[in-house]
Design a protein that fits this description.
- Helix content is about 40%, strand content about 10%.
- By secondary structure, it is mostly helical.
- It has a single domain, classed as Alpha-Beta Complex (Aspartate Aminotransferase, domain 1), CATH 3.90.1150.
Amino acid sequence: MRPNHGAIFGRHFGLPSLKMATWLVEMKNVSFTPGIAFGDGMNGFLRMCFATSEENIAQALEVLINLEKDFCPKLRIL
Protein backbone atom coordinates (compact mmCIF):
# COMPACT_ATOMS: atom_id res chain seq x y z
CA MET A 1 0.00 0.00 0.00
CA ARG A 2 1.35 3.43 -0.97
CA PRO A 3 0.54 6.67 0.84
CA ASN A 4 -1.34 9.49 -0.87
CA HIS A 5 0.81 10.63 -3.80
CA GLY A 6 -0.21 14.23 -3.14
CA ALA A 7 2.05 14.17 -0.10
CA ILE A 8 4.91 12.07 -1.47
CA PHE A 9 7.27 13.71 -3.91
CA GLY A 10 7.99 11.47 -6.85
CA ARG A 11 11.55 12.41 -7.73
CA HIS A 12 13.96 9.74 -6.53
CA PHE A 13 17.51 11.08 -6.13
CA GLY A 14 19.21 7.75 -5.57
CA LEU A 15 19.89 8.33 -1.89
CA PRO A 16 18.19 6.97 1.20
CA SER A 17 15.37 9.30 2.24
CA LEU A 18 16.86 9.81 5.71
CA LYS A 19 20.09 11.09 4.17
CA MET A 20 18.12 13.40 1.88
CA ALA A 21 15.99 14.75 4.75
CA THR A 22 19.08 15.30 6.92
CA TRP A 23 20.81 17.18 4.08
CA LEU A 24 17.76 19.42 3.61
CA VAL A 25 17.63 20.32 7.31
CA GLU A 26 21.36 21.01 7.51
CA MET A 27 21.78 22.83 4.19
CA LYS A 28 18.38 24.40 3.49
CA ASN A 29 16.80 24.72 6.95
CA VAL A 30 13.60 22.93 5.89
CA SER A 31 12.27 19.69 7.26
CA PHE A 32 10.65 16.81 5.38
CA THR A 33 9.72 13.39 6.69
CA PRO A 34 11.91 10.67 5.16
CA GLY A 35 9.82 8.30 3.05
CA ILE A 36 11.38 5.31 4.79
CA ALA A 37 9.13 6.16 7.76
CA PHE A 38 6.23 4.90 5.59
CA GLY A 39 7.89 1.63 4.57
CA ASP A 40 10.81 0.36 2.55
CA GLY A 41 9.04 1.06 -0.74
CA MET A 42 9.04 4.78 0.05
CA ASN A 43 12.77 5.05 0.72
CA GLY A 44 14.21 7.76 -1.51
CA PHE A 45 11.06 9.89 -1.33
CA LEU A 46 10.13 12.76 0.97
CA ARG A 47 6.87 13.74 2.64
CA MET A 48 5.89 17.31 3.43
CA CYS A 49 3.56 18.34 6.26
CA PHE A 50 1.13 21.14 5.48
CA ALA A 51 0.17 21.72 9.15
CA THR A 52 2.38 24.80 9.46
CA SER A 53 2.36 28.48 8.53
CA GLU A 54 1.98 29.63 4.92
CA GLU A 55 5.47 31.16 5.21
CA ASN A 56 6.99 27.77 6.10
CA ILE A 57 5.09 26.06 3.28
CA ALA A 58 6.29 28.69 0.80
CA GLN A 59 9.90 28.21 1.96
CA ALA A 60 9.65 24.43 1.63
CA LEU A 61 8.07 24.70 -1.83
CA GLU A 62 10.86 27.02 -2.96
CA VAL A 63 13.37 24.41 -1.83
CA LEU A 64 11.47 21.73 -3.78
CA ILE A 65 11.45 23.87 -6.91
CA ASN A 66 15.22 24.25 -6.71
CA LEU A 67 15.98 20.81 -5.26
CA GLU A 68 17.30 19.16 -8.40
CA LYS A 69 19.54 22.10 -9.27
CA ASP A 70 20.88 22.38 -5.71
CA PHE A 71 20.95 18.74 -4.65
CA CYS A 72 22.11 16.68 -7.62
CA PRO A 73 25.61 18.22 -7.93
CA LYS A 74 26.18 17.42 -4.24
CA LEU A 75 25.25 13.73 -4.52
CA ARG A 76 28.89 12.79 -5.00
CA ILE A 77 29.91 14.26 -1.61
CA LEU A 78 27.06 12.71 0.41
